[in-house]
């Protein structure tokens, strides 16, 4: 689904307001929720989306919600040369475990901040609306993700776990 649960979003928005990075990258922006609800907190930042499923770009008017859209898989995306925050909002469960670990490792090397949101309850999902990328390929636990992002702040809801990692935190 191009949407996710709202549980804990206020916690994320508090952290968006505190970030000082000039670039915010939203991986798998879906409907553009983080831009819609959080952009006003960082009007000085450039907001970019990375979307693998081309029909979502038009369907959800992503070009109007972001300063730019990279139409590609996160496995093809390379870090900008300036400090950036990257959001993985209900995205990493759509990747095989090994690929998610590799991508997180890459951005731990280059990002100034990382936000992850994942379902922390059993969340079986296949293809949705013709989008094979919507299938859930790995079920993360809260503890696994916390261990992947050493020293991160975390928030545990009934269904969703949220994590915010900062360089030198």
Please, could you describe this protein's structure?
- The chain is α/β, with parallel strands linked by helices.
- The protein has one domain (9-166): Rossmann fold (3-Layer(aba) Sandwich).
- It is 28% helix and 22% strand.
- It has 6 helices and 7 strands; from the N terminus they run αβαβααββαβαββ.
- It has helices at residues 9-18, 33-38, 54-59, 62-65, 97-110, 142-148, and strands at 23-27, 46-50, 68-70, 84-89, 113-119, 153-156, 160-166.
- It is globular, with a radius of gyration of 15 Å.
What is the fold named in CATH at topology level? Rossmann fold
Quickly count the helices. 6
Biggest sheet layout? 7 strands, mixed
Which CATH C-level class is it?
A: Alpha Beta
Judging by the overall fold, what is the CATH architecture?
3-Layer(aba) Sandwich
Record keyword descriptors for this entry.
single chain; 169 residues; alpha/beta; Rossmann fold; globular
Q: Summary?
A:
28% of the residues lie in helices and 22% in strands.
């Amino acid at each position: 689904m191009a949407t996710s649960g709202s549980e804990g979003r206020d916690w994320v928005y508090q952290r968006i307001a505190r970030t000082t990075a000039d670039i915010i990258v939203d991986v798998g922006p879906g409907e553009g929720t983080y831009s819609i609800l959080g952009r006003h907190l960082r009007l000085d930042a450039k907001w970019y989306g990375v979307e693998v499923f081309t029909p979502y770009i038009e369907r959800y008017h992503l070009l109007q919600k972001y300063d730019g859209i990279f139409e590609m898989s996160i496995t093809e995306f390379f870090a900008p040369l300036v400090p950036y925050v990257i959001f993985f909002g209900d995205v990493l469960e759509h990747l095989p475990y090994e690929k998610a670990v590799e991508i997180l490792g890459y951005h731990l090397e280059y990002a100034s901040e990382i936000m992850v949101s994942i379902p922390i309850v059993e969340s079986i999902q296949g293809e949705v609306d013709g989008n094979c990328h919507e299938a859930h390929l790995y079920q993360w636990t809260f503890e696994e993700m916390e261990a992947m992002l050493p020293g991160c702040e975390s928030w545990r809801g009934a269904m969703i776990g949220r994590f915010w990692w900062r360089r030198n935190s």
